[in-house]
Amino acid sequence: MTWQSLTGASGAWSGVDWTGRAADTASADPYLTWADATGFADLGGPPAGWLRVIIELEENAPDGSPLTAQSFAQSLEGANAGWQAWIRVSSIYRYPPAALEQTGFLTAAVKKQFFSELDTTLKGFVKRFELGMPVVPDDLIDAASPGAAQLAAGTGPVFGPAASSSAAGANAGAPQMVFLGVMDDGLAFAHERFRSTGEPSTTRIDYFWNQDDAAGTPPGLHYGRELAKADIDTLLARCTQPGQVDEDTVYAQAGYINVRKRWAHGTEVMDLAGGLRPNPLHAATLPASAREQREALGKVRLIGVQFRTAGRTVRDTSGRWFAVHALDAMRYILRRADDLANGATYCVVLNLSYGYMAGPHDGSSVIERAIDQLIALHPDLAVVVPAGNSNVLRCHARVDLINGAPQDLTWRALPDCATPSFLEIWLPENVNPSTVTVRISTPSGDLSPVISVKTLHVWQSGANVLCTAVYLDRVATGQRSMILIALAPTITRQPARIAAPAGNWTVTVSNDAPANGSLEIHAWVQRNETAYGFPMRGRQSRFDDPRYKRFVGGMHVRDFDDVKPVSWIRRSSTLNSIATGDSTVVIGAYRRTDGTAATYSSTGPSLRTTVRDGPDATAISEDSPACAGVLGASTRSGSLLAISGTSAAAPQVARLLACAKVLGNALPVTPLAMPPYSVRDWVGKRAQAEDPAPAGLMANQIGTCPGTAKPPVVPLGQHAWVPALPAPRGGAGRFPSPRWKKRGVGL
């Protein structure tokens, strides 16, 4: 096995030299460079036809005219019709709601030629792009077809011109319609929580888009399958006997297999966000305030999106698929909400209970900028995301890199990991990347050459690339310089492929600037564990440092950093990589019975502390030490299961926002009328007002813990043992629980 430089070489698939591109060309996705160098070995093989990308456009076209996603899509039907041989754009972007006509982000289906056109035909149009291909374990490559040569017509949503704008009257009082959009995996749309209580039972869901194509279907520009309310009601009526809905038959006739198991992440999330108990006797027993909220929630219009190809993409926790399909999902919900409003004022609350660990963490990723732009342009939109669950996973490193004093980062790759592992090293903003270099030492001590900017190195045996180091001067995944290090799986089921060695990989980072000083370097290990409910494939890699303190008093998990940490592994700045934008509402998690912050709930600050210092608020993710998680709907009516994590906390706040919008209590989300971050401000103030953390309660709880007989006294400023999260854990407060006396969903 030897280290080799691929600097200056054209990619075997794309034919593009990713290390030698000019400074005025579009920023490239370093993960595409890795895929090109490895022959797409972990992405199901080289694409044979069309694949999907997410694109940020320049503000102006080369001729100086304003450039938007809509104008770009329209040009493919007019002046640039010839480009359709290698790039096509969905009607979602060609016909947006009037308020979103100025958006500059879109997704596209492209062929290989697209990448060679970036520096010629598309120069001045594309600012940056990211690939949208999921990681595929090698035991699924045969089932993961890279696609046909031609795009099929597809059966997904196709749009025409939008209705007249409702933006002009959006600020006139409370909105007439409130839409709650949930994008997830496994949304049991026939569940009783999403149906009316009348006879016959009808759905509360206005639209449901399953992004997954039918098995064996060629890829389509308008992909997936859409069900309108009338379609779902027809299925429910056809499968009702007598008075009971046969939900299995509903899903079978709809061709929807994503809820065949008794538990699905999306069903619980959608229930926590917008589910209602159908029993009217339960409603009668609720207090007046809860009954009012229940009535308000009954007026909320639901729209659901099943993320594409759950068997492949959703279980790829590295998120290489996420930006493309998440942007499509959000744009779909916003367009359908606009259609249903038909010119009336309305608001939309979106819940996106997904997250990843690596990224720039300064709000500059493509999907974060796209979300912020949607919020800024839409007359009334809130997007709720979880803070993340990586607080104690040892996947974040912070180093003050002194000139001439290299720093070793130990990265532990676990055995029997069937998916690749990724490490991203991010440089400070506006730093010359030529001053920072890295070297990589394998577990066996094989040392790489010095890796500097605009280079590509691989460690390989024959045709098997086991480690790839990509160091581009500009990356599409953020607006600062980043070094990507990718490891091949540590176990393989292909006889001809060699697995990467498990163990400690040492990455040495050096500051070679000519002047004395230090650079604040951050590194994140990308999420890699196997998603719950899927067969074991990935195993989460992590950093390793003997000085890192994992426990308090030898027993309790330490969920905070010391004031002066001795280890370079940090719990701070572990926010979900889509939760550092300017305008999203970010929700952490805590335990109901004693107000303890969940140890896994990720913390701030982002790398722009003036914009975000942590979660905006917290909500319940654990009922008690003995009852982990909060109860939500199983995939079949009449049963409940518990779900943990900040992805369970976020939809509860989305629910609260939607109800407040119906009741007219929430602030309007209009940038022209309110200061920036108005929804964030409302959520933070509501959290503090509901749970002000009185001093007497704080005094009683400090130093006590039901888990030990003689607990250590933990300073208030460091440990989240009180109702309001202190600064080191980030966040402004939390909401009261509707489950204080019993375990169950309250509304």
Automatic annotation (TrEMBL):
GO function term, MF aspect, one: serine-type endopeptidase activity
Keyword Hydrolase on entry: yes
A UniProt-annotated Pfam family: Peptidase_S8
Keywords: Hydrolase, Protease, Serine protease
A single GO BP: proteolysis
Domain of life: Bacteria
Plastid listed as a keyword: no
Domain Peptidase S8/S53: 573-687
Recorded family membership: Belongs to the peptidase S8 family.
Protein name: Peptidase S8/S53 domain-containing protein
Organism: Paraburkholderia hospita
